[in-house]
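Same chain as my last thread, 264 residues:
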Amino acid sequence: MSFVNVNGTRLFYRLEGNINLPVLVLSHSLGCDHTMWDPQMTDLLQYFQVLRYDTRGHGASDAPPGDYTIDQLGRDVTELATSQGFETFAFCGLSMGGAVGQWLALHAPDRLRALVVANTSPQFATREIWDARRQEVQRGGMAAIVDTVMGRFFSPERQNGPYAQATRNTFLATKPAGYVSCCAALRDLDFKLLLNKITAPTLVIGSDKDPSTPWERNGDILAREILGAKSMVLPGAHISNLEQPRAFTAAMLKFLQTTVPAKN
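reply #2:
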């Protein structure tokens, strides 16, 4: 297991692949961890050295006290990449990870070679919705909201599948304090008026039945406002890389292979 102290906290990470290949950083959804990318790894490692990590407050990473900000989550990535000797990298993030990707594109554009953002938004739910969720978790732990969240993460016909069950277990194992702190970061972000400043080659992926970030008013805004962005809408609910792993991986690789040179 690999840990590194960055930006005031200890993060767990996994670095895999050929050191002569370009670097791709993967960032997971709220309530998940780095293992949500397992279905993509076999294909990605043919073309990239892949850096996965557990966002602060999640998985094996530490959960410092206090509300987090999107600035903190973004700087965690830049400092993690620097600690591994990576000046530039491609980035793929889903949901919360997609918010981190937007921050990187806006605040560290010189580090970013290409960007894939999936099932995400430049501004998530209202403050009232986030605060209500935070209070539920503070009162009852992760079990208080797991059924509601799983209903958003996966389509009804996939709820009993292996990916959904593994995600449910990860969600229940997430530190409640860390989850609540990351909710604050998503509650407070608003990139709507800044998207036209993003210059990184960008692919926006969404889902046609995503209850958390419906394509309309979320992904479609990213695809429209980010200059030159490409987009794809897949069938399914919120965790599109697990609902449609083959289609997701194929779309990501097709895009990255045309935007990221073969070597660093």
